[in-house]
Amino acid sequence: MTKLIVVLILLFAAAAGAWHMAGRADPPAIEIVKPERLIGPSGDLEVTITTPGGELTQLEVVLQQGDARWPVFTLPGGEPARLARVDANHLQLYRPIGKRDVPELEAGPLSIHVTAVRRVLFGLREIRSSATHQVEVRLLPPQAGVVSQFHYINHGGSEMVVYRVRPSDVDSGVRVGDYEYPGYPATGAGIADAEPGLRVAFFALLWDQDVTTPISLYARDEVGNESRASFDYRVFPKSFRKSQINLDDRFLQKVVPEILYNTPELKVDNPSDLLGSYLQINRELRRQNNARITELASATAPTILWDGAFKQLINTAVEAGFADQRSYVYDGKEVDQQVHLGFDLASTTNAPVLAANRGQVLHAGWLGIYGNCVIVDHGMGLQSLYAHLSTIDVGVGDVVEKSGRLGLSGATGLAGGDHLHFTMLIGGHAVTPIDWWSEQWIEDRVLRKLHQATTPGSGEGSSDESSGGLAAGEL
Prior knowledge:
Blueprint: H1 2-23, E1 29-34, E2 38-39, E3 44-50, E4 58-65, E5 68-74, E6 82-87, E7 90-96, E8 108-120, E9 125-137, E10 143-146, E11 152-154, E12 158-166, E13 171-176, E14 179-182, E15 184-185, E16 198-204, E17 215-220, E18 226-229, E19 234-236, E20 242-247, H2 249-262, H3 274-296, E21 317-320, E22 324-330, E23 333-340, E24 343-346, E25 352-354, E26 359-366, E27 372-379, E28 382-389, E29 391-392, E30 399-400, E31 405-408, E32 420-426, E33 429-431, H4 434-437, H5 439-454, H6 466-469
Parallel strand pairs: 2-9, 11-19, 20-22
Antiparallel strand pairs: 1-3, 3-7, 4-5, 4-8, 6-7, 8-9, 10-12, 12-16, 13-14, 13-17, 15-16, 17-18, 21-24, 22-23, 24-32, 25-31, 26-27, 26-30, 27-28, 28-32, 29-31, 32-33
Helix pairs in contact: 2-3
């Protein structure tokens, strides 16, 4: 009898120990991946659960606002939720939880509660875990309104707007047709005490956009709420010159092999066919290069790095202007048409190329049709480009001052002779440099608006329409 009691005590102790140890096993691990911070009319719940063998006996998701609770998932689940096995030990839950899917939601704070349970000890015991995540429900679109006045834009040129957006944490800027130009905090433009929602945006009406292209502010949050706001502006049409480029075998032999050697990623149909290869370079490589320039623009600084008017390279003659419409002629026949998006400035062979203004180097190296090329970022989406250099004296990341040396002029890329191809870029899109070379334009289009935003109620600046068009006269 005593032995039986001892055995029973030992069995009980073993069972108690096993029960206790089972209770210390790892519970399901819960990670609420989405939403990160907002839900709107739409929104997705994404939860990752780590559990041995992917086994769960219970999984529940509850949304809570105040005292109101809404279960949105319980095993075994069903539409519109989806519970999927990622691998042997991981499950992933997807479920739309926006206002359209959970109509009871109201604007304001929202708690997401997730509970997961799995069995241990041969299914005799359950262990559970829970996770809570706080987000905000936003149902109204953000608001944007212009602060600056008198917006004049030259066709192919630039402008700047100061505006206010609420809430201050949303994406916003200026939309011109299909293009968007993001705004940046006004503190980056030197308004030290600017409220969080005050923004500055540089934008452009590109040479190939119609002068009637709509221009407006936009404000968009991460859950799809979006608004637009109009503002007053006037566009000044500009005429662009037409020119003819005569191609010959000597020129093709000079430029085509060098570009193909330095651009191995470009696959031409027949490298020995100089004219055919040139046309692929002039079309496809030009497109690729311009796409790369647009990509580089995303690395812009959120602050204005430049100071005062930009400097044209001194003692240079203008050989080609901005947005010249070029026809390419070979053996008496037109073989291509392209647009020249910059100024060709020539002086002497291997002339020093100087930075037009202060900035940071985004690109310094070979760039297809542009040959040896330097791109300098001036902040808030503004860059300057220097092409066809013979040598480059700066590297990516270098900070250059106005008139700092970037390299020497040359004839690399699609260049027939030694010169500098120079242009300005807004959001990676070429705009005429004439605006930026003008102190009057800088004062009226930029500094006046920043001053007004700094000291509300001060002078509103000249409304003379000629002030918006004078700086962009034809050279």
